[in-house]
UniProtKB/TrEMBL annotation:
Record's protein name: RecBCD enzyme subunit RecD
Cited Gene3D superfamilies: P-loop containing nucleotide triphosphate hydrolases, RecBCD complex, subunit RecD, N-terminal domain
GO molecular function: 5'-3' DNA helicase activity; ATP binding; ATP hydrolysis activity; DNA binding; exodeoxyribonuclease V activity; single-stranded DNA helicase activity
Family that this chain belongs to: Belongs to the RecD family.
Misc: In the RecBCD complex, RecB has a slow 3'-5' helicase, an exonuclease activity and loads RecA onto ssDNA, RecD has a fast 5'-3' helicase activity, while RecC stimulates the ATPase and processivity of the RecB helicase and contributes to recognition of the Chi site.
Record-level GO cellular component terms: exodeoxyribonuclease V complex
Length: 762
């Protein structure tokens, strides 16, 4: 970014830019921004439309509309005038990847440099275009303006409406906890302590078990959030919660049917992962003491089998749950056709954007219970809104009121330490639990330590220098501390550094202490050393069905082969930050494919390798395809099937897991796949909701605004057992971990009285 600002005569824009006073000048400026990818064509089109509809719209209003629209593509729900004027160049996508820096158009800082907030606010008034000052916002203007706390926010109406819907729906749920379930409060309270004790048996009931607290609080309120880092037991807790809710329901004298529970996740990949882990946890959960409690409270004892069967293990995507329809953003289920369910659990909720969350809440019956699970510190969805992060702003300090603390003491036996109490805690705070103990990473885990060091926010006692030191320390070994066995650091000198090939082909086990040999997991199982892409390509060759077999006749044989290959593929993934340039997806994919070909693991001509299909090509689905039943984020591997009619000609098919726990494979003709890309390298954004045994996180060689601590944390936490951190330039890790994302939305303010929201908090 720095280079872009060099040589500018008037960097602060002391002379008013002509685009502030003339619509023609503004349109010409926006055109130049669009040409350079600083702005989306869509954002300019909105200005053209508004100007056509309303000829007297002031240029400053139109400029604000373009910038508000542009913020949506960058995850912000609205344009904040004070923030924009404080750092105008952050309002555009600067610099887009691969920008050539020649003849740059005027920067936003040059255009807005002479503008005061007062002057901009004064221009944001128009009876046809902007609604201003009406709390309910039932109008029809395309833009909505809200003033508070010394700034002004400009929304496109649709997004303002989503925020309103979410706030209204959540407030209603939080205000009426006892109305939410058939077995109302009194019964829950009498049965809960014993049920919690049955699910969380502990030698010292007074010790703080956050999982138990989460279960209790989620039973108490029809809306609950359970947040926590990787392996803190979100799935474990929710399985127990569902068992508890069903036990209470089935133990009711008059209840005939179990609760209708549905599980969902934002992407197919995340749904498949929960599918896998939840089925195992439900199977292993000891339900005997819980089932036997029924007789003591109501005289009715649900059998263990009935209880187990009443806990669902099938997870669907949110799109499927809501009933998406082709060619429309509207779903089959909405306020007029509610979802038929009593309890909904949404996993990986950090990836749910504001539009989806509003659609979900609108389609949820008012008596239904909603539980959101997720890691509040992960990157938010690529679309606008960071709903989970906004809701969980105060999760670290919990802010439980005296009433909540008393109730928790009665239900769980645990006394809440004063650090987690707040007399003025909001209703929303009482519905949130943060799980704080990782059961996947212990004190000996470098991945856990690194994630923790990266994730720690900057504050007065922990400045950027402290943070950089803490992060670097994880990689250092000295007399007191041996190197962590699960992490490795790799420096690449240039794009052709052979170390990259060593990493992606073999996994660079030599970068880990003892070559990754002799490590055990927490259950005492020996772990295989870290691998690269060689592993799945060798599995592909080793497990190939005989040439005489055909897919039509021997389907199970081929499905088993594809499953093995897909599983082996999950043992390594290279993640990167950018799309373009030598260190982006587009530059890395062909280089990795060529390295694998040199290692004789792939067979393909140059053209095929870069632009075509070949056996072993892994692909990522980039858009939901309902006709094929494939979801954005699904990964498939190209396999060559025997062709009995013409043995010399391969039949290429792409194998995808059916993701329904059945072990079935979808075999798809490559030509039918409309939106896929090669995925030897995957962006961290696309990797959300996935996990790989060995994850290699490659940082670019130059600073970039999207390289933030949330991104690095998300990349690191994709690693299950092994992490390679790859740096292609100096200081990029230092740079990234001290840059934090700020998402602008009104929901952030709404979760606290301190935020002085326009119409009160939750
Ligand atoms: N209280 C506990 N005591 C011991 N082990 C636990 C406990 N809670 C969870 N675990 C184990 O820790 C591992 C991670 O748990 P779980 O999958 O529930 O976490 P998660 O937060 O859902 O993880 P993810 O980050 O994958 O979403 C599992 O093997 C689980 O059995």
């Amino acid at each position: 970014m720095r280079d872009l600002f060099e040589g500018l005569d008037d960097p602060v824009g002391s002379v008013p830019h002509p685009a502030l006073n003339s619509v023609d000048e503004l349109l010409a400026l926006l055109e130049r921004w669009v040409e350079r990818d600083w702005l989306r064509a869509l954002d300019r089109a909105l200005v053209v439309f508004l100007h056509r509809e309303v000829q007297d719209a002031p240029p400053l209003l139109l400029l604000a509309a373009a910038l508000a629209s542009h913020q949506l593509g960058r995850g912000h729900v609205c344009l904040d005038l004070a923030t924009t004027l404080a750092a105008p160049d952050l309002a555009l996508s600067l610099p887009p990847e691969g920008d050539d820096l020649n003849d740059p158009p005027p920067l936003p800082s040059q255009v807005l440099g002479s503008l005061t907030q007062q002057a901009w606010q004064a221009a944001l008034a128009h009876p046809v275009l902007i609604e201003h000052g009406v709390t309910e916002g039932s109008g029809t203007t395309p833009l909505v303006r809200r003033d508070f706390a010394g700034t002004t926010r400009l929304y496109l109406r649709r997004y303002w409406q989503y925020e309103q819907d979410i706030r209204r729906q959540l407030s209603t749920r939080l205000e009426q906890p006892s109305r939410a379930q058939p077995h109302a409060h009194a019964n829950v309270s009498s049965a809960l302590p014993a049920a919690l004790e049955a699910l969380f048996p502990s030698a010292q009931p007074e010790t703080l078990d956050w999982q138990k607290l989460a279960c209790a609080l989620a039973c108490r309120s029809p809306f609950a959030v359970i947040t926590g880092g990787p392996g803190t037991g979100k799935t474990t807790t929710v399985v127990k919660l569902l068992a508890l809710l069903q036990a209470l329901q089935l133990g009711e004298k008059e209840s005939e049917r179990p609760l209708r529970i549905k599980l969902a996740a934002p992407t197919g990949k995340a749904a498949a992962r929960l599918n896998e882990s939840i089925a195992k946890q439900v199977e292993e959960l000891d339900l005997h003491s819980l089932a036997s409690l029924g007789s003591s409270t109501s005289g009715k004892e649900p059998s263990v089998d009935r209880l187990r069967q009443a806990i669902p293990t099938q997870v669907s995507t949110l799109h499927r749950l809501l009933g998406s329809r082709p060619d429309t953003r509207h779903f089959r289920h909405h306020a007029g056709n509610l979802l038929p369910l009593d309890v909904l659990v949404v996993d990986e909720a950090s990836m749910v954007d504001i539009e989806m969350m509003a659609a979900l809440l609108n389609a949820l019956p008012s008596r239904a219970r909603l539980v959101l699970l997720g890691d509040k510190d992960q990157l938010a969805s690529v679309e606008a809104g960071a709903v989970l992060g906004d809701l969980c702003q105060y999760a670290v300090s919990a802010r439980y009121t005296p009433a909540t603390c008393d109730w928790l003491k009665q239900m769980t036996g645990a006394a809440i330490p004063t650090a987690y109490q707040a007399k003025d805690g909001q209703a929303l705070d009482q519905a949130i639990t943060m799980l704080r103990v990782s059961h996947r990473f212990d004190a000996n885990s470098g991945i856990g330590r690194l994630a923790q060091a990266v994730n720690r926010p900057l504050d007065e006692s922990h400045g950027p220098a402290d943070k950089r030191r803490a992060v670097r320390k994880v990689f250092k070994s000295d007399e007191q501390h041996k190197s962590y066995v699960d992490i490795s650091q790799l420096r690449l000198e240039n794009a052709d550094d052979p170390a990259l090939a060593r990493l992606v082909v073999n996994g660079n086990p030599g970068g880990f202490p003892n070559h990754g040999q002799g490590r055990h997991d927490r259950q005492g199982q020996l772990l295989a050393p870290p691998t690269g892409y060689r592993h799945y390509l060798e599995t592909l060759a080793a497990k190939r069905p005989p040439p005489s077999a055909t897919l039509e006749r021997e389907r199970p044989l081929f499905d088993a082969w594809a499953l093995d290959v897909l599983k082996a593929h999950g043992s390594f993934q290279l993640l990167c930050v950018l799309r373009k340039g030598p260190w982006g997806v587009e530059g890395l994919n062909p280089r990795i494919a060529r390295a694998l070909r040199r290692a004789t693991l792939l067979e393909a001509g140059n053209h095929e390798l870069e632009h075509g299909w070949y056996e072993g090509r892994p692909v990522l689905v980039t858009r939901n395809d309902y006709s094929l039943g494939l979801m954005n984020g699904d990964i498939g591997i190209t396999l060559a099937l025997p062709n009995p009619q013409a043995p010399a000609r391969k039949l290429l098919r792409v194998a995808f897991s059916a993701n329904d726990g059945s072990g079935r494979i979808k075999w798809v003709l490559p030509s039918r796949l409309q939106a896929v890309e090669t995925v030897f390298a995957m962006t961290v954004h696309k990797s959300q909701g996935s996990e790989f045994t060995h994850t290699a996180l490659l940082l670019p060689d130059a600073p970039n605004p999207i390289l933030t601590r949330e991104l690095v944390y998300t990349g690191i936490t994709r690693a299950r057992h092994w992490l390679s951190l790859v740096e292609s330039g100096r200081g990029m890790l230092d740079d990234a971990v001290t840059r934090e994302v700020t998402r602008i939305s009104g929901l952030g303010q709404l979760s606290s009285t301190r935020g002085s929201s326009t119409s009160g908090g939750f």
